[in-house]
Design goal:
18% strand; 239 residues; alpha/beta; pyruvate-formate lyase- activating enzyme; two-stranded antiparallel sheet
Length: 239
Amino acid sequence: MATTSNIEWTEMTWNPVTGCVKVSQGCKHCYAERMAKRLHFMGAARYANMFKPTLHEDLLDLPKKWKKPRLIFVNSMSDLFQNAVPDGFIEHVFQTMRDCPQHTFQILTKRSDRLRQLGASLHWPSNVWMGVSVEDEQVSARIADLVAVPAKIRFLSCEPLIGPLDHLQLAGIHWVIVGGESGPGARPMDPRWVESIQTQCQRAHIPFFFKQWGGVRKDMTGRELHGRTFDDMPRLAHC
């Protein structure tokens, strides 16, 4: 299963795994869970299990069919490093990414402990960007786990940003995304939290991407900060 994406910082999604288990406050209003339920009730076969972790082995080699270079978010509807995904399945995902040097793959996890555990045994091609979600100070230890893996590009997704991150450890980080929570029950994001992260990135010369203010109607709040959009990204592997 792959689709073009409305996520501002990618082009395509590739979901060899769907479904997940909540692990921290950033998961409280999970957009993927809402979407999975909607797709289930629409009769989508891939979501027969709704949001229960499900492996789709027939999709493991799908990116090999795409010849044109693409920026691909891996498992936008799941978490590749959750316990329900066997080591061998993760290794197959990495093999596919190695076999597709024309693409750039973006992986995002909240299971930084498992990422760190497996990181040394995985073969990291230069076209894989690895990130962790850091929604507040409570989970900032994920950053140290990320920095321990030998990905060429390591990034932070501070979304949904639900608390201040005034002392980010940015050594070894190459990109930072910030965004507010959106949809039903969205928790508000203080502009000072965003400004603090943007300033830290500017001082450290790290690309900063501001995705959205969020809210129940994110289309009403936009994504401008200080009267402009911030779309900075690392250089793509195939450029």
